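Lab notebook page, bench 4
Experiment: in silico fold of construct C2
Operator: M.H.
Input chain length: 241 residues
Purpose: comparison with the prior construct
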Amino acid sequence: MGILSFLKKRKKHKRPTCAAVIAAAGSSTRMGQDKLLMFLDDAPVIVHTMLAFEQCDLVDKIILVTRSDMIVDMNSLCRDYGLSKVTDIISGGENRSQSVLKGVIAAGDAEYVMIHDGARPLVSEEVIADTFNAAVEFGAAAPGVRVKDTIKIVKGDLVTSTPDRDSLVAVQTPQVFYTGLIKGALSRALENNESFSDDCAAVEAIGMSVHITKGDYRNIKITTQEDYITACALISGEVLV
């Protein structure tokens, strides 16, 4: 049975099962400290991220992929903050694609997986739901927002071209996939010794399309100190986007 036939058949039945895979195995080198443990309002960044999926009715379980030296700390956080949907806390691989594949495999028989950056703590339930629903219909979906700045393609320090801004989208997470699709795409990447910083790219590499849903400018990824300051202002209500 093809993916589209499977998806159409699923529409006639109850909601497909879904696991959230939280990618949190990075080194935070640009931040200078572990950004996932920095407090945002009343809890660490990674706790806010997991709570977004803990509180979402579409999510049946959460797989947290982290560094091996953080497993004990993450276990403690899950216990302290009552994160009951977290079924597995596993160590990541050598790169993002390997880490996410380990998470997808740990998701077991979940029909769909939501892959989300651990450093995106402000994701809304609306963004999660819209992306999930699109993935159920199309097989692969990701939220995106229109690029505000003019983008230049450069070589060295010289501009080579200026792409049409209307055709550009900044892609966010969660990126949601039919599990068999993303597992196959990431397995192919592993076989070919490839790594993708964006999980949609793995699906695109095997010739499949990804549906873009409406993202949220508040759904920022905390990478630098400036991002962290912005997130603090957003969560406190000092800044509206």
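Observations: The longest strand covers residues 18-24. The mean pLDDT is 93.
Next step: discuss at group meeting.
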